[in-house]
Amino acid sequence: MKSFKLTGSLVLLASLLTLLTACGRRDVAPTLEPSPTAAALQASPTAQVIVETVVVAETVVVVATPTAVTATPNPSATPSATAVAQPTETSVPPTVPVATPTRPPATPAPAPTATPAPGPTILYFQADVTTADPGQTIQLEWSTVGATTATIGRIWDFRISEIWTVPPSGSYTYTIHPMLRNQVSFILTVEDSSGRRNSSQLNLPLTCPDPWFFTPAPDSCAAGPARVSAGAEQRFANGYMLWEAAERRIYILYTSGHNRWQIVSDTWQEGEAICQIEPVPPGYVHPARGFGKVWCDDANLRERLGWALANEVGGYQTAVQTTAFSRYNRIYVRAADGGVWVLLPEGSAWEKIPPP
């Protein structure tokens, strides 16, 4: 038995020496798999390497045989899920064709036209005062550019009543008429060598020298002082009669019809007889004196006014004033009770301001 074991060992040794001689007696180091990193060991099952050592005489040969071992998760390390990007299906909107604007053909620019030179220019047209009195002498002043001729006209009743030829720039002295009221108006007209014109109007306010006989006063000037004289008035079925001694006028006011008032002259003389129309209806009065004469002589007037409702009232001071416009003026007449009769322009209507 001992002899058999020795013979087997010698055979094994001889085979090993033969192998080493064939390999040039070089020690062949086994090729090891690279060691996994710590991160890899945590993220994946660990691998254990079993090393077998074979001792043959005095030469040690290490043979590394990797053996796969089932990985055991580390209880202290919590594996983290690693998100893996999966390809997703992307919705692509349909392509919408976009119209490419086309530039229209260039329109040739119009040929430049010569700009006509401006006409004459009025730099200013003014008076040396901002408000004037009737009868006052004032200075008109003006300055122009490009004018060769100039005129100044005074405007009255919407038309030029006076006109003066003046230099294109300069001044002019003018005396306002003493009976003029409310404002005085002028117009400056200039012209250049080509016949082009320009104009400017000047309205100069005037003071009101005559106070109104009643309040609240109108917002315009009175044509003159109030005419104060004896007055009388009488009421009729369809209107009134007013008498003013200063002008011997009778104002007739109608409550109906187209023309609501008119003025007639008082031609009656003291002691003159007038008509007597009979019978007088109950509750009415036959007018007398100047009112009676007008009423008797004009059948149309008598028809419009009707019979008097009471005897005339006199013995008081009336007053008459008018506005001072070129047309469409109002007449104001003091009434027997202290009120004011207002006769509107052109006989159109009348009204009464009650006594204060």
Derived from helix and strand composition plus strand pairing, the structural class reads: mainly beta
Strand order of the largest sheet: 13-12-11-10-14-15-16-17
Distance between the termini: 170 Å
Main sheet overview: 8 strands, antiparallel
Number of H/I helices:
4
Mean of pLDDT: 80
| SSE ordering | HHEEEEEEEEEEEEEHHEEEE
Helix content: 10-25%
Low-confidence stretches: 1-7, 20-93
Total beta-strand segments: 17
Residues in β-strands, percent: 25-35%
Rough shape? elongated
Radius of gyration: 65 Å
Could you explain how this protein is built, in words?
- The protein is mainly β.
- Among the domains are: 121-205, Immunoglobulin-like; 227-353, no CATH class.
- The chain has helices at residues 2-22, 38-43, 289-297, 299-305, and strands at residues 48-56, 59-67, 121-127, 137-145, 149-156, 159-166, 170-175, 183-191, 197-205, 227-236, 239-244, 249-254, 261-265, 313-322, 331-334, 340-343, 350-353.
- The strands form four sheets. It has an eight-stranded antiparallel beta sheet with strand order 13-12-11-10-14-15-16-17, covered by helices on one side. A four-stranded antiparallel beta sheet has the order 6-5-8-9, with no helix packed on it. Strands 3-4-7 form a three-stranded antiparallel beta sheet, with no helix packed on it.
- Strand 14 and strand 15 form a beta hairpin.
